[in-house]
Amino acid sequence: MLAATYTIRMANETDDSRGSSIRSEPIFVLGILPRCGTNFLSDLLRAHPDCGVPEPVWEDFFIYHADLLVRYADTVFAQWDPRWGAGQALRNRLCERLGSGLVSFLTEQAEAKRVVTKTPRVDNLNHFFTLFPNAYLLILVRDGRSVIESGVKTFRWHREWAIRKWAQGAQTILDFDSESEDSTFKYQIVRYEDLWSNLEEALRHILVFLDLDPGKYDFEEARQLPVRGSSTIRDQGDGVHWAPVEKRSDFDPMSRWRHWSRARHERFNWVAGRYLERFGYEPQRSGSTRFLWTVWNLVLDVRWLVIRTLGPLYLMVKRRLNPRHARMASEQEATAPTKLQSGTGG
Questions:
Q1: Could you give the dihedral angle defined by the CA atoms of residues 256, 262, 267 and 272, in that order, rounded to the nearest 10 degrees?
Q2: Model confidence over 267-301: pLDDT tens digits?
Q3: Which range is least confidently modeled, 56-60, 150-154, 305-309, 323-327?
Q4: 66-82: buried (b, 16+ CB within 10 Å) or exposed (e) per residue?
Q5: Which end of the chain, N or C, is surrounded by fewer C-beta atoms within 10 Å?
C-alpha cells in the first residue's frame, strides 16, 4: 500500500554500497504530466552547488521515446546468431550502453558534478532502468485536479483528455512501483504538495537519497526561488513563459481547483478518483443523487468513445473534400505534440 507521504516509495534506501563514486550519476526528474511542477523540483535541485542542468536541453524526453531505443536493441539482438553465445545479458548491456551515450551527451552540457535533467511525462517509464540502471530517478506526482486546471488555463487542454491522461500517467507510475517493489533501483515518488508545504523536510530527505550533502544547501534561498511557467503569475503580458518571476505573497498553487462545480468533481472522480486516493489525496464527494450522476457519467463515457472513434474519420473525410484544410491540419498536428510535451513547465 502506498503511503501518503512525500516519498511514497524509495527503493534501495539503505544500500550501504553507495559511495562517492556514485555522485557522478545523473538525476532524472519525470513528471506524471505537464503542469505537475517539474520546473519547481528541478530548480530546487539545481540550487545545490554540486548540481547543474544540461543547458540548453531543458527537457530531454529520453524516456518519452525510449521504446524506440529498446526496439532498436531488440532488433539488433535478434540478428545475432545464437551460436555466438550472445545471450540476454549482452542485450541488456547493449541497452545500458545506449543509455550511457545519452547520459554522456547531457553531462557535456552541464558544468557540474551531477547533471539534473527532467521530462514532464512518464510514458515508457518501464524502460527507464533498462537504459539507465545506475541513475537516480525522482517521479513527481501532483493532485490531478490542479494539473488539469493549470493545463486548461495554460494550454487550453480538453478537460476530458486531460483527466484521462493524468489517470493514465498515475496507472503507469503505480505499475512501475509495483513491479519494482523488490528491486534495488534508486527511485523515489515525490508529491509536489509535500515539497510546497514542507519544503525543507521533504527536500532534505530527497537530497540524502540522491547522495547530495544537505549541509551545502541554502534552504532559505530555496524558499525565495522565483516562479517559472506558472499559469497564474504572468510578468507583463498575457502569455505563459518560463522566465523567472518573483513569487508574490499570495501565490497559492494548491488552490487551482477550489472553484470547481460538482459536475467537474463528479467527472474527475468517475475517471480518476481512485488514483487520487492511491497518492494520498482526498476526492471531494457528495452522497446525494448518486444514480443520476452515474447515468450522467456513463453518457459522457459514450460521448468520449464516439469522439475518439469518429473524430479521425471525420477529419479524414474533411481533408479529402478540402485539400487546403488537409495541409493546415497536418501542420497543426506536427506542432501540437510540441505544445503539449515540451516547454510545458510542469
A1: 50
A2: 999 999 999 999 999 999 887 888 999 999 999 99
A3: 323-327
A4: beebbeebeeebeeeee
A5: N
Residue type, 253: P
Domains of the chain as residue ranges with CATH = 7-255+337-341 (3.40.50)
What pLDDT does residue 240 have? Answer: 58
Query: What pLDDT does 201 receive?
Result: 95
- Is residue 26 reached through a cis peptide bond, with omega within 30 degrees of 0 on the bond before it? no
Angle, alpha carbons 196-201-204 (nearest 5°):
110
In whole angstroms, what is the distance from residue 269 CA to residue 275 CA? 9
